[in-house]
DNA sequence: CTGCAAAAATGAACGCACTCAACTTTTTTC
DNA sequence: GAAAAAAGTTGAGTGCGTTCATTTTTGCAG
């Protein structure tokens, strides 16, 4: 049985994260002051810092929620990808992209990615990096799956190619969030143009 | 003829940048306070802000210097690359990597890259992005050059493949600066492993 | 040289993320 | 159930990047 203290702790942490998601999204990460956030979560500023190391840490926690969700959906695609190398790769990639703005703004993504580079040693910085690796692993898995099914050439090693594809889609996502005027549609086109020749290259002749 | 005012302005800007390069490198970007930097450059804090928009802006300016230098050296390699697709690509990539820590620390790179994502609208943020595009262009140019020489297959379009390679080396560089314990040698190995299968794939049969 | 306008330098003041010594609440002990 | 210990909360205080009203310097016309 969990004691009162543990329940209160869990509740406070949840309240802080709730307030953060709502406020960051509504008014932007930068514009939200920490004392406001604390007010909204019904705790003091000091308490926020008992649960999260920095303001950025709170943001990364909210982003992590989103990424976990995307990974969940992605695993279904990996388990049974559509036919065709290009189609399958784009299905997974577009799934990532299409969900990216469901709960998060571009500003939030920008800040979170910046933080994961700048402060890779914080708890949530590492958490974010771990999620990134998981996403990468999913792409590798997909390539491996397509190879099993005989759609990807037998002499292709899924690991370096999967990483190549992941690094590429990640960089293109960064370009996307850097430019507020770029649409999801434009991102899709750009990555498709990028992937098409590569997909053709690793696909078996008769695909 | 340049008036006294213009000369003094140029001199002050140079002094600030000089002090910044020296101090950031010696003591770390974060650890350098702006009033110290201003002291060292023999100007007031306010004056620093007449020349640069933010502290990060100063950092990006110092990083830009380094990148410009690397681009200069790279163009020689592109003009006359060594034989062999893999060899040529790695020559250019390693040139980038090997110079990266000449004047800048990993912390400076981390911060600069983070800033270029987080604040892409600042003057120097755009400057940095432009340099990035230039680097990417150089890789594309190299692929095109190798194609001309018949080392890269004729049905390969240099643009998407060049971008693919650039995005990849950029992401691997990010991983490198994120991990203080990772050596240049380890980075080289990682990127070589990544490039080998791709190089083999786009090279002409008889290479 | 003098007076005037434009440009630039200055540093005290401000805002906001973050800290920490004092206080409150929960748990444990007997 | 009271008292001691442990764990957690609190918000005024601190540090540092940034701003802006004031002062100083430069350029220019008469």
UniProtKB/TrEMBL annotation, chains A, B:
<protein>
    <submittedName>
        <fullName>TetR/AcrR family transcriptional regulator</fullName>
    </submittedName>
</protein>
<feature type="domain" description="HTH tetR-type">
    <location>
        <begin position="10"/>
        <end position="70"/>
    </location>
</feature>
<keyword id="KW-0238">DNA-binding</keyword>
<dbReference type="InterPro" id="IPR001647">
    <property type="entry name" value="HTH_TetR"/>
</dbReference>
<dbReference type="InterPro" id="IPR036271">
    <property type="entry name" value="Tet_transcr_reg_TetR-rel_C_sf"/>
</dbReference>
<dbReference type="InterPro" id="IPR050109">
    <property type="entry name" value="HTH-type_TetR-like_transc_reg"/>
</dbReference>
<dbReference type="GO" id="GO:0000976">
    <property type="term" value="F:transcription cis-regulatory region binding"/>
</dbReference>
<dbReference type="InterPro" id="IPR009057">
    <property type="entry name" value="Homeodomain-like_sf"/>
</dbReference>
<feature type="DNA-binding region" description="H-T-H motif">
    <location>
        <begin position="33"/>
        <end position="52"/>
    </location>
</feature>
<dbReference type="Pfam" id="PF00440">
    <property type="entry name" value="TetR_N"/>
</dbReference>
<dbReference type="GO" id="GO:0003700">
    <property type="term" value="F:DNA-binding transcription factor activity"/>
</dbReference>
